[in-house]
Amino acid sequence: MIRYVLVRLGNGLFVLWAALTVSFLVLHLVPGDPVSVMLRGNGGEASSVDPAAADALRAELGLDRPVHEQYLDFVWRAARLDFGTSFTTGDEVRAVLGRSLGPTLELAAAALLLTLVLGVAAAVAGTLLPKAPLRSAVLSATVVGNAVPSFWTGIVLLQVFSFGLGWFPAYGAGDLGQLVLPAFALALPGIGTLAQVLSRSLRTALADPYVRTARAKGASRLRATTAHALRNAAIPAMTLFGLMVGGIVAGAVITETVFSRPGLGTLTANAIGGHDFPVIRALVFLAGALYVLVNLAVDLVYPKVDPRIVLRAA
């Protein structure tokens, strides 16, 4: 087990290095000069930038050095979790991320909880409801939810439950009411996907001999499903759920914008618009690290769910 974890962490470090390298190269290839953006502000003209001031600021930020020197310095700093200072605010990038991380983690945790609870409930209902039309209706509803873009869902939720009924606030963060609508908008696509995958696995597991044996011993269909079949059917859904974490964090960019919530999504949009390279690189590193750690955690849970699974390092 320890060797497996070490190998996976080594692979994860390679993934992080590759992601950071690609982000560094891409950001230096895209058109636009962050120094000009910083000096002229959001609404200024490019011709209004003083060339002398631009050269001085470029030297201060180290952007006048050769690209390979900037890259080596960037990798060395990233290895120490030092991403420098934000081009737009002048604050340390770690402090900028720290201010935005809390609201996004709150939103992501709520969305993942909704995805898990409602996705499993829909899968079980789509498998156990007594009439075939009811089962089809439940699973068809999850397909519709999966096909609808999260930004459109967010707008509809705002129109109905905020502007129309007035049940929830339209924007902001800080209390439970402000979390409900964005969490549901972010979770809805994942609920449909999880329900579809888990329902197919449940139908396969219910046909296995051990389930028929449990039914023959007097277990109800509900108990046979939840106590026996669900555990073995959960492996594909667990893999999918681990991948959903990255999707939910990425979806926060749109959701937080629609609901005017502070967080990593809003920070990402502002950093891209302002060519804030240090913040963008730190966000790429954070997303990569989250992906590696979540997938490692899911792999470590596999043997707990199904003892037949043995983890071996490649």
Question: How does this structure look, described?
Answer:
This protein has 314 residues and is mostly helical. The protein folds into two domains: 1-88 and 274-314, no CATH class; 102-272, MetI-like (MetI-like fold). The protein is 77% helix and 0% strand. The chain has twelve helices and no strands. It has helices spanning 2-29, 34-40, 51-61, 67-79, 93-128, 132-147, 150-164, 177-206, 209-216, 221-258, 264-273, 277-305. Helix 5 crosses helix 8 (177-206) and helix 8 (177-206) runs antiparallel to helix 10 (221-258). The longest helix has 38 residues, at 221-258. Residues 101-302 form the ABC transmembrane type-1 domain.
